[in-house]
Amino acid sequence: MKFFVDTADIADIKELAETGLLDGVTTNPSLIAKSGRDFMEVTKEICGIVDGPVSAEVVALDHETMMKEAETLRKIADNVCIKVPLTIDGLKTCKKLTNDGTMVNVTLCFSANQALLAAKAGATFISPFVGRHDDNGFDGMALIEDIVTIYSNYGFETEVLVASIRNPVHVLQSALIGADVATMPPAVIKGLFKHILTDKGIEGFLADWAKTGQTIPTA
Ligand code: E4P
């Protein structure tokens, strides 16, 4: 499963990229606003840190203007992935861009039928929002299962990118279902490394090691 980070915070992206475990980045207009940075500038900087896809979202609602915005965004770097909303105009834009070989992430997906449409439009990624689904009394993970089943039934190549992840259990469930990508806030990715027994184990081993009075030569 690929790991994307869902942020426009450069310090967090750099820190996670250094682990060698980061496969891409997703942003959205809210995350750009939170960063306080210029959209074009920060997107270019992110594209230079991570080799994988960096999603940058259009803000127009009509197909024609979406295409113009996408034209500007795709010039930023080769690894820009144009993010479009799951609307008729968004999917028209998706179809046109992917026909031209541009990566497209279709965002704000809340039903399996929407995901089916996005796959038919040739989306590179579909982003079902599990956290927001759960928040509204639906079962976010059931949605992921349905999409994975439908894509496998028809051999669609669109990757299922689980978005709006809130906790490590969402990540675990996504992996068990076989989703292709999880995009997570930095804190959730960092939380995946942690286990109380790992910390306790290190503490115990180091206490015993100190008793030996030995060191491992490092030069
Ligand atoms: C995905 O691409 C979105 O940016 C994101 O996952 C939204 O998550 P939220 O529901 O926490 O805002």
TrEMBL record:
Q: Which GO terms describe its cellular component?
A: cytoplasm
Q: What is this protein called?
A: Probable transaldolase
What EC number is given for this enzyme? 2.2.1.2
Gene name of the encoded protein: fsa
**Broad class of where this protein is predominantly found:** cytoplasm
Q: Which InterPro entries match?
A: Aldolase_TIM, TAL/FSA, Transaldolase_3B, Transaldolase_3B/F6P_aldolase, Transaldolase_AS, TSA/FSA_arc/bac
Subcellular location as annotated: Cytoplasm
PANTHER family noted in UniProt: FRUCTOSE-6-PHOSPHATE ALDOLASE 1-RELATED (PTHR10683:SF40), TRANSALDOLASE (PTHR10683)
What Gene Ontology molecular-function terms does this entry list?
aldehyde-lyase activity; transaldolase activity
> Which reaction is catalysed here?
D-sedoheptulose 7-phosphate + D-glyceraldehyde 3-phosphate = D-erythrose 4-phosphate + beta-D-fructose 6-phosphate
What species is given as this protein's source? Qipengyuania soli
PROSITE patterns recorded: TRANSALDOLASE_1
GO BP: carbohydrate metabolic process; ketone catabolic process; pentose-phosphate shunt
| Gene3D superfamilies in the cross-refs | Aldolase class I (3.20.20.70)
Q: Which UniProt keywords apply?
A: Cytoplasm, Pentose shunt, Schiff base, Transferase
* Active site per database record: K83
Function field? Transaldolase is important for the balance of metabolites in the pentose-phosphate pathway.
Q: Which domain of life is it from?
A: Bacteria
Entry keyword Transferase: yes
UniProt family annotation: Belongs to the transaldolase family. Type 3B subfamily.
**SUPFAM superfamilies registered for this protein in UniProt:** Aldolase
Give the pathway listed in the UniProt entry for this protein: Carbohydrate degradation; pentose phosphate pathway; D-glyceraldehyde 3-phosphate and beta-D-fructose 6-phosphate from D-ribose 5-phosphate and D-xylulose 5-phosphate (non-oxidative stage): step 2/3
